[in-house]
Amino acid sequence: MAGRLAGRHILISGGGSGIGHATAMRCAEEGAVVTVVGRRLDCLKEVARLTRGHAIAADLTDEAQAFAAVNDAAALMGCLDGIINCVGNAEAAVLEDIDLARWDASLRTNLTSHYLVCRAALPHLRKTRAAAIVNVSALAGIRPGVSSAAYGAAKAGVIQFTKTLAAQLAPDIRVNCVCPGAVDTEMMDRFLAGKSASQQDAFLARYALRRLAIPLEIANLLLFLVSSEAQYITGSNYVCDGGRAYQ
Predict the structure, then answer these.
(1) Less Cβ around it within 10 Å: N or C end of the chain?
(2) Is 151 among the catalytic positions?
(3) Count of domains in the chain?
């Protein structure tokens, strides 16, 4: 029986770990040819081995590297009809501790990388039918945090960028966004490191479901949005946060 993504060719940025890793696995399970792109070649190669796909090491905040990676992915797979942008990195800091270099680095990682991949992919996506882009933002993009000025600003930008692209590229290319809440990844491990058990319990108590998401739960939503099952959905932002947004 053919999978939900049979015949699809999908590039996943940030595919070496966390949500990107889980998304690559799910897309491959559903029949897609997958290329994962990111900085950590050892992790990417392992994902490529598991998915029988391709791995490309690149700094996606760099224009030349981003364009080369997207073009190489299209060449390796024969075409490109899906993009899932999972690149992101949160760094908690209050405004007085964010110098211009840290500000720029956060925006380049969390927003500019999405822009560069999308821009590089457009010529390839326009050659195919039912092309789709899914950008991963974050709950910080819609819910302010006291120590997420740069990260929150960048992730809010991803949401608006997504909606603008959806309007611009319709009807040929669908573009949607997902805002995860707290997910059990290396990034979350760094955030929770050093916090006491009571502090961790208090953090989880902010979520209606009282737990972290696992990457697979976010990956399933990303898979749906890039698939033909979501062919009438564009310009939407899906919040997958275990009930944090209304707490």
Answers:
(1) N
(2) yes
(3) 1
